[in-house]
Amino acid sequence: MSIAVLVPSDLTAVPAAVVELRPRVVARRVAALRQHLVERRDAEPQHARLLDIIREVLDRWEDVADADLHVWERYLGLLEEHAQAPHATAACAATANLVGLGLFAAPRDYLALADLAEMLGHERLARIQHRYGVPLESHPGLQLTTEALRSMLAEGLHERLARHPLTLGRLEAIDNACLRAAHALLLQGIDRDWSVPVLDSIDELVDIAENGTIVEWRHHMAMVTASAWAPYTGRLVEIAAESGHPHAAAVIAAIIDLCRDQSATEGDPVAHDMAPLAALSGAPDTEVARWAGADAPRPAYRRKWAPSRRMRRASEQAAAMVAERRAQREAAARRKNLRSIPGGRSRRAAV
User: Fold this and answer.
1) How far apart are CA 167 and CA 165, in angstroms?
2) pTM
3) Are 114 and 168 in contact (CB under 8 A)?
C-alpha cells in the first residue's frame, strides 16, 4: 500500500502573509493599559501628569524596534504588575521616561524628564530609574540605561529642542534636568572603593566615551567621587579638552564639577577647602588639583543624615501626642489630690 504525498505544484498557492502573534499580543496589552490609565486619570487628578507621561510612551509602541521588544514586554509587565497600586505611579512614570529616552528620545521625553525632576528631585528620580530600570535590561552592560544617558547628554540637543514648539519655552529647565539627572544616574550603585585602570590617553578617553556603557562609566565615576580634587580627576578634564571633541569635554567637565560640589556639600574636608581656593586663585582645576597632591590626606567623613519632611512631621506629631498624654496624666493626678482634701471639690470649683 502506497501513501501519496500531496505537494502543491504552485508554491504561491500557500498563504504568503501570516500575521505574527507577538505584535498582536503586545497591541492588546497596550490597549488594555491605556484604557486603565484613562480611567485612573479621571479618578486620580493629582496623578494626571504622571499618568500622561506613562500614556505618551505607551502610545509609541508601534515604533519599538524588533530588537527592543523584550525590553518593551518587560516594561508592560511592570505596568501591569502595578496597575492597581496608585502609590507606585511615580515609579511607573519614571520608568516610562527611562524607556522613552532609551528607545525614542523624542522632545516629549525631555519635557517629561524636566517635569519629573521638578516633581521628584534629580536624586530620587535617578534612584527610581535605576531600581526599576535594571530588571528591564537583558544585557549586563545595561543597554537601555546607557542609551537613556546618552540621550540626556547628546550633542546638539539644545539646538534640536529649540526648534520644537513643545520644548522651546522650557529649554533652560530641560538642560538643567538632563545634566543633573544624568549625573545622579551615573552615581547609582557605585562603590567608592572601585578601582579600574586609569585613562591616560586621548584615544582611551574617546573610546570609552563613544563605545562604553554606563557600567564602565560608573567605575570611573567611583574613582572621581572618591577624590574629586585628585590629580587624576584634573587629568581627565585636561585630556578631554585636548581630545578635539568639545561637546564630550564640556560634559566631562560639567559632571566632574557636580561631583566636586557634591563632595563639598557632603562634608569632604579636601573638597570644602579646595573649592574656594580654586575660585580665589583663578588657576585651572588641574593646577589646583596638583596643589592638593596625589597623597594628600583625606580624612574619613561621615555623611550627615537629614530626616525627610514626612519623618520630621511624624516625629513632631508623636512628640505632641506624648506631651498631651503627659499633661492629661498630670491633670488627673491633680484632680485626685484635690478630692483627698476636705472641701477640695468645692475649692476646685471656686478656682
Assistant:
1) 6
2) 0.72
3) no
